[in-house]
């Protein structure tokens, strides 16, 4: 039997559904090692992420996961389902918020809704999709939100 190949990809412009909520699974448990590695790789010397003794005397009583790691993980969780191989470019982020802290050992779950989409006026065969990402911890508490504008290929237009 001859089989056809199917390659994992994200969605083309036409496939983004404004009535859907895309749940990104599996979740990702963020560990102390993840936090220290990300924080040092990005040269963020904030004591709140690196210094356990100092952080013990702060309002949360312990180190917190770097919010940029939380944001990066949240957006990264959406890639395979939404934009893998179909994105042209990220156009920008706005309305980024961290309403609750992420602690070592918390598991992040992501979800995305499409809040707008339109064909590009200047780039034929491409469209702009506005994605609202929400990150929740294992208890369902919202820990991160962000709105992202992405330029994606239309079906049949990708080289």
From TrEMBL:
Matches recorded under CDD domains: FkbR2
Signal peptide coordinates: none
Top-level taxon in the UniProt lineage: Bacteria
Domain MaoC-like: 21-135
InterPro entries documented for this protein: HotDog_dom_sf, MaoC-like_dom, MCH/BMMD
Family annotation (Pfam families): MaoC_dehydratas (PF01575)
Coiled-coil regions, chain positions: none
Family: Belongs to the enoyl-CoA hydratase/isomerase family.
Protein name in UniProt: Acyl dehydratase
